[in-house]
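Slide 14.
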Amino acid sequence: MNPLEHIQQPQQTSYYQKDILLNLSFTFTTNNRIFFPNGKHKDLFNHNYKFDISIKSPVDTYGLAIDFYQIERDYNEKIAPLLNAPILNESLPVMNTTVENIAYFIWQQVELLLDEHSEIQTLTLYETIHHSVTLNKEMMQ
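Slide 15: predicted structure.
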């Protein structure tokens, strides 16, 4: 027996109808070569990255913002294959695959997934648990 069977939709479905920040986290693993001045480079093998992203979204009359799961599905379909590629230098646009450049790329790609009412507020990309870069809306305007 379903203990929630007696619960019916309320007449008012939204408690508060303002913008809200949705926070999502993603990880990817790849190999890449980062170039430094004087012809030096560093190779990263099976390197694990993590990023956290905050998206501002309006809350609708049902008390729902943009769908977490739709963002995850779109990310997994359109962006994750590029980031989880065997060699990141070959799957991304021509760039030095620094954490800074990767963060800009992710921001631009996630923007393409959002509707006209939602916008990224911050994105933090972790190269390690102790090293990260953060972009915010003001920086990206």
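Speaker note: The first strand starts at residue 19 and ends at 35.
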